[in-house]
Write a structure and sequence with these properties.
Length: 317
């Protein structure tokens, strides 16, 4: 979602170094406009004052502007301690003093399209139709495919996870039924946290069609996952980070939305099909509860995803 912002900054002559956590750093290495990527040594949660101060000292004198994309208080500490003269970001968590130019937070709980939200940091306004784009060396892609015994366009990708919570996940049984209906092998991708659901899908599919479903969840790096996604016939996923990766590579995809909204985080890809029952006039009864943006379904039924059938997705593949 931040790639269009970086493209704008690069186009006006800025040399870009991105500081990112290791799990997302490979995505920034796939952006040609990024000169360098610094992998942040921070664990999830906690301020980790010592680590941040140490890294800030190393950055002193090297940068003139910092664009702080996360809205958290702690994310603004590093450029402030590093003495970077201009520090740009949203007001976020009361970041008075930490930022030199603060954009106002969206009002009234409004969730704007994220690409426009980040692009506004360039001071040129946000453009909602800016499409993120990623690029990989074809030689690296071929090497990754060879290591996984895959051929370009010879498989589908399923990404059944969603880090935020179960209210964003299409049921595993639906993924399994859909996989069994496809004529090409299906590769399952996800982190180790998604290994259980991927194993459930693979077991159900391979019981009927041995070897048809290849479970690589938790067993491949993000670098390899990017390569495999970029060369797939198509991808089916929940609203997740891997959904946006497929969009940035221009891969044909079906994106499943339930508790979240494609008005907020759509896959910006002309080859994407969004399935969201909230927007389906033929679906009854109406889903007045969606989008709830909750981790777990407050009503306990998750109808917004359960009621999307495998056939609803198959027609787009």
């Amino acid at each position: 979602m931040t790639e269009p912002l970086l493209r704008r900054l690069h186009a006006r002559g800025e040399s870009l170094t991105v500081a990112a956590l290791p799990w997302v750093a490979p995505v920034y290495r796939a952006m040609p406009q990024v000169s360098a990527v610094v992998e942040l040594p921070f664990a999830h949660g906690g301020l980790q004052w010592g680590l941040r101060r140490s890294l800030a000292r190393q950055m002193q004198g090297h940068f003139s502007v910092a664009y702080v994309c996360p809205n958290s208080f702690k994310s603004a500490l590093l450029p402030w301690w590093a003495g970077i003269r201009e520090r740009v970001g949203y007001h976020g968590e009361s970041r008075y003093g930490l930022l030199t130019r603060r954009l106002p937070n969206p009002r009234g709980g409004h969730r704007p399209p994220m690409v426009a939200f980040y692009s506004a940091l360039s001071a040129e306004g946000g453009v909602a139709d800016d499409r993120p784009s990623l690029t990989l060396d074809p030689i690296r892609v071929d090497a990754a495919l060879a290591g996984m015994r895959l051929q370009r366009q010879g498989y589908y990708i399923f990404a059944p996870g969603a880090e935020y919570g179960s209210a964003k996940r299409w049921p595993a049984r639906h993924f399994a039924v859909l996989a069994g209906q496809l004529g090409l092998p299906v590769v399952l991708l996800g982190s180790s946290k998604e290994s259980a659901v991927c194993a459930e899908i693979a077991h159900a599919v391979n019981a009927a069609r041995p070897g048809h479903c290849l479970d690589w969840s938790g067993r491949t790096s993000l670098d390899h996952a990017l390569a495999v996604i970029s060369a797939a016939r198509a991808m089916v996923s929940n609203d997740s980070g891997l959904m946006h990766v497929a969009a940035a590579f221009g891969v044909p995809q079906v994106a499943l939305f339930g508790s979240s909204s494609p008005l907020h985080t759509p896959p910006l890809n002309p080859k994407a099909h969004v399935v969201w029952l909230k927007n389906d006039p033929t679906y009854v009864p109406a889903l007045d509860c969606a989008p709830c943006f909750q981790r777990e379904c407050p009503l306990g039924h998750t109808r917004c995803l359960v009621d999307i059938t495998p056939d609803d997705v198959l027609r787009f593949l």
